[in-house]
Write a structure and sequence with these properties.
alpha+beta; five-stranded antiparallel beta sheet; 20 strands; flat
Length: about 625
Amino acid sequence: MSLRTKLLIFSIILALIPLGIAGRSMIRITQDELKSSANDELISVANQVAQEIEDFYAYTWITPLTLVKNALENENLGIAETMSLLTEGIKDLNDIVALQISVTGGHEPLLVAQDAFSQRIVADGLDPAEALKLTPTEVDSFKQLGEIFVGDLRYIKESDIWIMTILIPLKDETFGIPAALSARINLSSLVQRISEHSFNQSGFISVINPKGRKLFDPASPDLSDYSVVATAVNILNSSTRTMGVKPYVRPTGQSMLAAYAFPSFIDWGIIVEKDKAAAYSAIAQMINSLLVWLSFGIGAAILGAIFMAVSLTKPLLKLTVAAKSLAGGNLSTHVEGKERKDEIGTLSTTFNKMVDDLNNYIDELTETTKAKERAESELKLAWDIQQSFLPDEFPEMAEIDVYGTCEPAKEVGGDYYDFFPIDEENYALVIGDVSGKGVPASLFMAVSRTLLRMLTLDTKSPEIVMEEFNDRLVSLDDSAKMFITIFYGIYNIKTGNLKYSSAGHNMPFYRSTKDDKNDFQMLPPMNTMVAGIMDGMPMKLDEINLSPGDQLVLYTDGMTEAIDTEEQEYGEERMEELLNQHKNESSQEICTTLVSSVQDFQKEMPQFDDITLFVMNVK
């Protein structure tokens, strides 16, 4: 038997047997089940919407907030990490548009708003801080309502946005005094999900509060005169949360079928309604329609099987020939049959499109290769420009021996160091680490370097330079999207005096020949904020006197936070031990040894941060 004959016989059998069995079974099932399907649909939709609200609460809102809370309560988290956590953590959360840390005692709360949301309400003429900030009174009142407060639904009329508040208390040890983490939740996704629910095409879905008012409606109409709403309100104000079905008559006289359900964590009620007449009229219509279409379907199936058997084989043969031609390398091969309005036509069109796409792909691959080469050339130029910012030669000086190096994690990076004379006796020592990596960090680094050099034209005390540097950096980027840690010192080659200040940067290692152990140790810490976050921050000043044989090692955290394949950090102790082993070497030898040690430590792990080092030996 030919394929056409086999297909014809098989298609007729395949059409007749399932249609006969399915028709008999579906009529019986329809008769038994359709009468209760309306109520089942209502309770299913109500429970589904309630579950969607619970899913939003559990996975979209509470889970990321809990992660932020746990991170804030980490005792090892510094101020810079806290700010980075709040600013970076909120960036990719669509629904959480603002995070606020509130502490008792009259302290100003810290509010971090999502950039995209802030820009939207600013475009609508609103102040994001005024629209999103919680007052101390509101925070205190919400904290008294439960361990986790969820509520405070508000409507921003200018932007047509509904927002809600979630507040979670923080451990008292976090900031030393009672504090709370609160979030503003943009409910647009939830409102859209409910409004676009397919059930709205045949019925109504409403969300109510414990007072019986409809939520997500700017007019907030009172629905408590609907008996189903009154029942749901009574349940909301009780300790139970049972869902149910309730037929009722509206005040207008319209008979309705309704169901209600409740989310577990929010005091909302879900009311699902459908016109009673419309819900039940489908039963008889569906049975009659089913009988008619089953009879028609059996006849059509037989005719269709005959037609399908005849029409399938011929175009399939053409496709087989074309496929063999394409496999042989003929990229101009095309097949006829795309004018057909069936799967064969779709397959023919797809085959022709595949051939065209293959040709286009070859052309695009050629262009992509050229574009990639251009991009690599531009990144190489950016790397050359950035390297020009760093000292490429170190002067031969009778008083000191200096050397520095910087290895970016990407083509360009945000670390830098600098060494330059301020006057005949004083030299500036600088090392900085910009938040982030890549081109944005390199641009911020270039601005920081230029700004700091400008501020050191006059011989000012380091803490004054750092304060002016911070204020000007904030004025250039008042949104605090990026910041920098920086260590700045002024060394007098005549007296050996080093005055220095730090803005949240790692303290350098220092070795004094006057010390009994004659080993490296870290300079005393300076608890200061990173630069570029907020203006008006006071900076600290300290100084030491260096003698011949003393050494100073400046570095960024790309050295100490490098990890190996077992996710172990290189660490300050390992770096201090290696410095003591090579303390008698030149500054260049020390730099080369330390950088090589970190790179060997990382082994096959990618370099995740810039590695920067600057060493000064006093002769």
